[in-house]
Amino acid sequence: MKFRILTLNNISLSGLDRLPRDRYEVASEIGHPDAVLLRSADMHSMSVPASICAVARAGAGTNNIPVATLTSRGIPVFNAPGANANAVKELVIAAILLAARNICQAWDFVRSLRAEGRELDTAVERGKKTYVGYELPGRTLGVIGLGAVGVQVSNAAHALGMKVLGYDPQITVQRAWQLSSGVEQALSIDDLFARSDLVTVHVPLADATRGLVNATHIRLMRRGSAVLNFARAEIVVEQDVLAALDAGQLSAYVSDFPAAQSKSHPRVIALPHLGASTGEAEDNSAAMVVDTLRDFLEQGNVRNSVNFPEAVLPLTPGVHRLAIANANVPNMVGQISTALALANLNIADLLNKSRGEIAYTIIDTDAPLPDSVVARIRAIDGVLAARVLEAGA
To answer: Which of these, 21, 28, 386, 393, has the minimum number of CB atoms within 10 Å of its CB?
Structure first.
């Protein structure tokens, strides 16, 4: 069997090279694709072919993908969490220094000078006092969101001598192990804002995080503080930030998401979405998501999905695998098992995982699965998709 992959963006060759040519056909125009591979292309207005069984993004955010619609069709959406974390971390550390030392404003000042010789030296000495900044040791950085990026930012800032407060009620055990012991846990969002000189957000955009950085929270910050946004534009209320800058409550706002109303403000540093814009990040993201996609297509395993539960079952030689996406309701596994039993098929292994309203079941049988049995399973109310994989090699 040869898998057909539709690409919606240019994908790093270091990722595409991980797809064996004898098993995969990859193109930007292809009929009846099995999967979609993309970066920033907008899929919301796209008609997703019925043949699609997976969507994979070579990056972290999935706002450009209709996740809810795909979930209702039993299609997992994969991403590459942490693959670009170092690139974003380095840019955030640079942003902290830009905000602390007024570097961009000072650079603009020097570029605007038309004097030469001693006159230039005099103008520089006279003007530099306008751009006096502060050093990082002893200053407090509040980090909202302790995923792959938030943990690296926290550790790097702590290594620079900053006091770091972290807040993430959903931090994973893996990330907690990676976090420096010197990072202090904030008791709440309000506690973090109230004790921070700079706040940086590293959370996905959701109803709970939309407008998280707003006038109410900014008022809790120390006067002359700074806000950094390298997560998503909508997490920050731009009008509230501008009002705080004009009032002197904030001294700087550094964002990776330029907005017409704020990009020209003298205390705003707006960057053109450079967070993951390194060759290394693009290579890492592509390689990671391609490996994840291959594991799903070839073995039915689910890792790094934003809408499906993690489900990994080693594919042993000689078995025949059925992968099923279904609504997370009672007796689904029972109905599926009954359909197999009626066909005298013995279950060699079974894994069932759930995540919210979706469940995913992997079943290995000792004998091949007849089309009639698969059709009967697909017809069960609540089954969203069912896929037969080739026998384990």
So the answer is: 393
Q: What is the mean pLDDT of residues 257-270?
A: 95
- State whether 111 and 225 are in the same domain: yes
* CATH number of the domain where residue 32 is located: 3.40.50.720
Phi and psi at residue 311, to the nearest 5°: -145, 110
Cβ 155 vs Cβ 179: under 8 Å: yes
Q: Which of 242, 270, 298 is the last residue of a domain?
A: 270
| Cα 178–Cα 58–Cα 207 angle in degrees, nearest 5 | 70
- Per-residue pLDDT, 1: 78
What pLDDT, on a 0 to 100 scale, did the predictor assign at position 393?
46
Q: Is the pLDDT of residue 229 over 50?
A: yes
Q: How many domains does the chain have?
A: 3
* Domain span holding position 47: 1-84+279-308
Q: Indicate whether 112 and 217 sit together in one domain.
A: yes
Q: Which two tokens stand for residue 390?
A: 């080739």
Distance CA 99, CA 104 (A): 8
Give the domain CATH number at 327.
3.30.70.260
Query: Sign of the CA dihedral 291, 296, 301, 304?
Result: positive
Q: 283 Cβ partners below 8 Å, 6+ apart?
A: 12, 14, 15
What is this structure's pTM? 0.80
Position 97: which residue type? L
Per residue in 313-334, pLDDT (tens digit) is 999 888 999 999 999 999 999 9
What angle is formed at CA 354 by the lines to CA 349 and CA 360, rounded to 5 degrees? 50
> Could you tell me if 337 and 246 lie in one domain?
no
Collapsing DSSP to helix, strand or coil, 387 comes out as: strand
Residue 352, class by beta-carbon neighbours within 10 Å (0-12 exposed, 13-18 middle, 19+ buried)? middle
Shared domain check, 331 and 291: no
pLDDT band at residue 236 using 50, 70 and 90 as cut-offs: very high
